[in-house]
Amino acid sequence: MDDGIPTARRRSRSRRTFAVGALLLSVLSAAAGGLIGSSLERTGGLEAVRLSQPDPSRPGPPQPGPPPGRSPGNATGIAARALPSVVILHVTGTGTGTGEQATGPGFVLDTRGHILTNNHVVAPAAAAGGRITVTFGSGATARATVVGRDTGCDLAVVQVQGVQDLTALPLDGRRDRPGSPDRN
Known about the structure:
Layout: H1 7-43, E1 49-50, H2 75-82, E2 86-92, E3 101-108, E4 114-117, H3 119-128, E5 131-135, E6 141-150, E7 155-160, E8 163-164
Parallel strand pairs: 1-8
Antiparallel strand pairs: 2-3, 2-5, 3-4, 4-7, 5-6, 6-7
């Protein structure tokens, strides 16, 4: 079956067609994967984040609390109670500036997902419509939005959505106040 095209030329054309098809398939697959991945990142993934809570009845790693023989009112005890509520915020600005970034600490205020941090930490995202990612002690992450800011006091409140089992920092304990007579 000779159609007038030499065999070598036909082989070269089919290799070229195969290479172009493979390249096109690779580019389309990468674009689809990028779109799906960015959509999942923006929406927080497929399901809500559930933070693990220690179960004192199950054996496992030591539960947070003061070391044996230490008063729960000393600095070590206070730090052990605060640790499950401490988070790290990673902020990226996306405005016309240089893509400013910031990282800073915060703590969970309530079980509804409010987190207190510094205004200068969230400023790149608040000013330029950037992105705030909160990392919890367990390593789980969630997206957050700015709820309110006070530039004069350098305070800001952000809120995470879809996070369950948050541990709020207890702020009402008299024993937790430095200098309180009942700390000893």
